[in-house]
Amino acid sequence: MTFYLLGAGTYCTFLLLSKFKDRECSKTELKSWGVIAIASTLWIVVIPICLIEIKTQANAKQHSKNKSAIAKTTNQLKEITSSIQ
């Protein structure tokens, strides 16, 4: 129980600091405070989901970079081939 409360408190502190650093987020909106309360309560579920989402986005970004590199190489090969002919 101590581990859970320590983790929830730490995660709540992190969320609060992030909220107050964010200039676009309303400090008086009840929904944003509710999200912080729910996320802090369910931190043991929320953190792995966030990490999976971050990893998925990073993989998608890398895949996009690889596709553009392949397209660039293909275009260069086409140019070389057409200049030879």
What would your notes on this structure say?
It is a single chain. With 85 residues, this protein is mostly helical. The chain is 87% helix and 0% strand. It contains 3 helices and no strands. The chain has helices at residues 2-21, 30-41, 43-84. Helix 1 (2-21) runs antiparallel to helix 2. The longest helix has 42 residues, at 43-84. The chain is elongated and about 75 Å long. The mean pLDDT is 80.
Layout of strands and helices, then pairs:
Blueprint (H helix, E strand, L loop, with lengths): L1 H20 L8 H12 L1 H42 L1
What are the key terms here?
3 helices; 85 residues; mainly alpha
Q: What is the percentage of strand-forming residues? A: under 5%
Structural class: mainly alpha
List low-confidence stretches: none
Main beta sheet, described? none
Radius of gyration, in Å, reads: 23 Å
Quick synopsis:
The protein is mainly α and 85 residues long. The chain is 87% helix and 0% strand.
